[in-house]
Amino acid sequence: MDVTVFADCLCRQSVCTDPADSADKFADQLEQSVVSVLDELAPLKTCSKRCGRWSNRWLSESAVAAKRKRRRPERRWYRTRRQADRVVYRSACREANAEIIKSRQSFYQQRLNEAAGNHGARWKIVRELLHSDDDHAVMEPAEAKRLCSQFSRFFIDKLQRIAREIETRLSAVAFSIQTLRRAPSSQTLNEFAAVTEEEVARLIKLLPPKSSPLDCLPVSLLKTAVAVMLHHLLG
């Protein structure tokens, strides 16, 4: 993306022509303006991508042969429905499963050995093993709200139980707890120190190159257009 074009389009938005007078409203206005510019310069696109069967990567020749051997008694049992054919089919299933598990273990063990000393590569393999990159169904808003309420109530109740337990145990202590408390500090925080553009630019450039789905602006673009965004961030 051309940073100059991005800056020109952003300057024509309401965040520059008519900025809000409160911090919360200005933050919402900045997000809306940035999203509007990005929708114009880099609109979202959807595409279809064919996903292959990743399980075939780690199948050894013996595992593939065991799967093929399993298919023959499987078809025979589906055709005849005889108990003897089912016994043969289940025996072939156990042999094939054992070969598949052994092949998978060997495959990932080899990958972990090859990634020795490379923490990034090892973490990628561990994520594959934990299936953390699998797609999950999107939860309905009502269900998400219900789960959030349950989690919130669980932790609130837990903290209240802990507070009651502490109060009960302290009430049994002979000496006063007031003697253990520190005296309040005489110094108070009345205002924040002003920051400079150089300090903000340095912090932005130190950001890790990772973006959250909640970010209205990708970190890579923010770091590239840091000179453009400084005026709005400090405004």
How far apart are the termini?
A: 24 Å
Q: Give a quick account of the main beta sheet: strands, pairing sense, barrel closure.
A: none
Structural class estimated from helices and strands: mainly alpha
Amount of beta strand: under 5%
Number of helices: 10
Give the helix level as a range of percent.
Answer: 55-70%
Global outline: extended
Helix and strand sequence = HHHHHHHHHH
Radius of gyration: 30 Å
Number of strands: 0
Low-confidence stretches: none
Please name the defining characteristics of this protein.
235 residues; mainly alpha
Model description:
- By secondary structure, the chain is mainly α.
- Among the domains are: 3-43 and 195-208 and 217-234, no CATH class; 58-130, no CATH class.
- 64% of the residues lie in helices and 0% in strands.
- It is extended, with a radius of gyration of 30 Å.
What's a concise summary of this model?
This protein is mostly helical. The chain has 10 helices and no strands.
Structural topology:
Layout: H1 3-11, H2 14-17, H3 23-41, H4 61-80, H5 83-114, H6 119-130, H7 141-171, H8 197-205, H9 219-224, H10 226-234
